[in-house]
Write a structure and sequence with these properties.
The chain has 2 domains: 66 residues, Arc Repressor Mutant, subunit A (Orthogonal Bundle); 171 residues, Beta-Lactamase. By secondary structure, it is an alpha+beta fold. It contains 9 helices and 8 strands. Helix 2 packs across helix 3 and helix 6 crosses helix 8. The two termini are 25 Å apart.
């Protein structure tokens, strides 16, 4: 939650970063009008921001099309951020074999505003899986991943964030609060949350929250598969418990000092 009224808040910097965040993994180059529409920033301001970001290398200007794509500075920053998640090697040793065994996508996510951002993905080798990949953002509200995140916050943090999210998305506040409380009970009893086509009719998934001293907020691991190649029973009896066990193993590695926190 950001405090734009705080005198330390740099509005111009925030708008520039908002432009960078408007790009999606599935995008081609974007023009100023598209960026203005996505960010709700006036087009004249967008023009100044894209020019400045291009000069700094965070965007690359394509004169032939009068459009922009992320530049080398943004790519370098993303690569550094991706590489400096301290436990990622330990996680990969656990999650890649799980993805292969279940023939499903396994991913690590963290909150990015009102979305959950996929930061690392492990895909089954030699088997098709769901189309989402690193850089993809899914809603906080209405997904097992978002609910796992919200259910891992303390009550005060969760209430404040839910109030902000429901105003922005026009969701029912009481309904979301009830879903979060139910999610807390589900996590306590089973160790994972399930979602059967609620967010996307073609995807079944389970999610498990993860806490580490390296991050101030909870992270969430998810495992998802096409609904046509999975069943609710297998998700509940096999996929969910196996993902929860791998996350427990990762916690054990970190707390035991074998891997980094």
């Amino acid at each position: 939650m950001r405090n734009e009224e705080d005198r330390r808040f740099a509005q111009t910097l925030a708008r520039g970063l908002q432009v960078l965040r408007a790009f999606k993994a599935s995008d081609g180059p974007l023009g100023n009008q598209e960026l203005a529409t996505r960010t709700q920033i006036p087009k004249p301001t967008i023009s100044r921001l894209t020019f400045t970001l291009s000069e700094l290398g965070f965007l690359e200007h394509l004169p032939t099309y009068e459009k922009y794509r992320l530049g080398p500075a943004a790519m370098a920053l993303g690569s550094v951020a991706h590489a400096t998640v301290p436990f990622v090697e330990s996680a990969a040793e656990l999650m890649q074999p799980l993805a292969d065994e279940l023939e499903a996508l396994v991913a690590l996510t963290m909150r990015d505003g009102d979305r959950m951002l996929l930061t690392h993905c492990w895909r089954p080798q030699g088997a098709p899986c769901i189309w989402i990949s690193s850089g993809f953002r899914m809603p906080l509200i209405g997904t097992s991943t978002g609910l796992a995140y919200l259910a891992s916050l303390d009550s005060q943090q969760a209430a404040a964030l839910i109030s902000e999210l429901t105003v922005k998305s026009e969701s029912n506040h009481l309904k979301v609060m009830t879903e979060v409380q139910e999610s807390k009970r589900m996590l306590m009893n089973h160790g994972f949350l399930e979602s059967f086509g609620k967010w996307n009719p073609g995807i079944f998934g389970v999610s498990v929250p993860f806490r580490t001293h390296s991050f101030s907020e909870p992270l969430v691991f998810l495992c998802g598969a096409p609904a046509k190649s999975s069943t609710k029973k297998s998700m509940r009896q096999i996929t969910g418990p196996k993902l929860a066990e791998r996350v427990r193993q990762l916690n054990g590695i970190i707390s035991g000092g074998i891997g980094q926190q």
